[in-house]
Specification:
Layout (H helix, E strand, L loop, with lengths): L3 E5 L5 H10 L3 E6 L5 H6 L3 E4 L1 E2 L4 E2 L2 H5 L4 E4 L14 H14 L4 E7 L8 E3 L10 H14 L5 E7 L1 E3 L6 H4 L14 E3 H13 L5 E5 L7 H12 L14 E3 L4 H6 L8
Helix pairs in contact: 1-7, 4-5
């Protein structure tokens, strides 16, 4: 029986996820890199740990955090964009993997991304061979394989589409931009509510040793969708040029999701 959950990375997704798990009566350990945020976690009923993972070391009591967990949720996305210093995400997960191996944790939920599919055209299912084209996608795929290929771990990999929800939507960055390509390509997005719902469903059904695409099943074109979202918010819509399109459409073919999960929040 699953009673104790650990959430590494209590940020935009991890914090409301941990809070939701607490409301289900589960004991939840949560990590943050910020000393100030420890009190926030505690107020929400989450046992707080200040832990920071770099490519060279893990700062904080990771062994105490992992102690007696039934499920570990790894939710620390690679930070490889922008102009700031970049660390190896692979080395971070390798360090975490070593810590997991010292513990009794066997069930792992790893938050990955559909970025591992790269620029593949057409319908993409969980059986499609990933061909990442970005550094983030390449490192995520290597970390997926590290966990999946460990015979002593029961790992489920969730490849989330583009994340939307409170204070997070692509239109805020796309508004007013001109001559964008890909206007006829489908969007592959998922709302925060469903990210949490899918993780909770995995835990509820003890569904591990799998790879799942987590994307809302409706796929309007980018031009249609972002024009609509800009209009709703009183923003200037982006404009698109006619080009050859990368029509990548992420499908959820997993029997688990088709038969046992009903999406909670539409993307629009």
């Amino acid at each position: 029986m699953i009673n104790r959950i650990g959430v590494i990375g209590c940020g935009w997704l991890g914090l409301p996820l941990a809070e939701s798990l607490v409301t289900e009566g589960l004991e939840v350990n949560g990590t943050t890199t910020s000393l100030d945020k420890l009190s926030v976690l505690k107020e929400k009923g989450i046992k707080p740990f200040q832990i920071s993972i770099s490519e060279k070391e893990i700062s904080g009591n990771i062994d105490a955090f992992l102690s007696s967990l039934d499920v570990l949720i790894i939710n620390i996305p690679p930070k490889l964009r922008g102009k700031g210093p970049k660390e190896s995400y692979i080395e971070k997960i390798k360090l975490l993997h070593k810590a997991i191996k010292r513990s009794n944790v066997k069930n792992i939920i790893f938050a990955s991304s559909t970025a591992v599919y790269g620029d593949i055209k057409g319908e993409v299912t969980e059986k499609t061979e990933p061909k990442p084209s970005t550094e983030s996608g390449k490192q995520l795929l290597e970390c997926e394989n590290l966990l999946k290929r460990d015979p002593e771990l029961n790992s489920v990999i969730i490849r989330f589409g583009g994340l939307i929800g409170p204070n997070r939507h692509p239109i805020t960055m796309l508004s007013g931009k001109e001559n964008l390509s890909g206007g006829n390509a489908p969007v592959n997005l998922i709302h925060l509510d469903d990210c949490i719902g899918i993780i909770k469903k995995i835990i509820e059904h003890n569904h591990f040793n799998d790879v799942l695409n987590a994307v809302y099943p409706a796929h309007p074109t980018k031009k249609t969708y972002y024009t609509q979202e800009a209009t709703k918010r009183g923003l200037k819509p982006p404009t698109y040029i006619a080009t050859g399109e990368n029509l990548k459409l992420i499908s959820i073919c997993s029997i688990f999701l088709i038969n046992k999960y009903n999406f909670l929040t539409p993307i629009n």
